Amino acid sequence: MSRGIRRIFQFIYLSSLAFCLVGVLAGAGCSKKDLVERPVSEKRWTCDKQADDAMQRQDYEAGILFHQRFLEKEPGNGLALYHLGYAYGQTGNHVKEVSYYEEAIAHGFGQDTIFFNLGMAYGELNQIEESIRAFKKALDINPHSADNHYGLAIAYQISAADKLAEKEFLKALEIDQAHLDARIHLSLLYADMGELQKAGEQLRRILEIDPTHTRAREFLERIEKE
Question: Could you confirm whether domain 39-110 is CATH 1.25.40.10?
Answer without folding.
Answer: yes
